[in-house]
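Sequence in, structure out.
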Amino acid sequence: MISITKKQTIKSIQEAFSMIFSGLQIRFYQKEHALAEGSSKATEYATTKTLGEITPQLKEGKISLHDLQTVAQFEQMMETQFGLHVQVFRRSGDLWLQTTTSDYKTLKEQNEQALQSIALL
C-alpha cells in the first residue's frame, strides 16, 4: 500500500512503487493517455515536483497494489482516484520500456519479465 499526499514528491512515490515491484517503475505526466497509448517524454514531470504541485485538487489517500492487478487497472486507478497521469515502465536489459502494448498483463507478470531480462545481463 502506498500513501498519496500533496506533500510527497514524485520520487518518493516512485521509490515506494519500485520497492514492491523492483523491475518496474512509474513516471508521472502532464496529460492522460488512452489504453495502450504511450506518453511523450516532453510531458513528463520532474521527480522533484510534489503531487500537490502537479495536481492541486489531489484527493489524498492510499493505493493498494496487487500482483494480479493489470497495468491498465493500476494506471486507471491512479487517474480516477487521484487525478494522476502515470505510465508503468518495465526494465528490459539496460532499457526502460513503456508497457503500452502489454498493459493487459498483471504487475506481477511485468515484474517477472523484467527480472528475467536483468538476470540475462
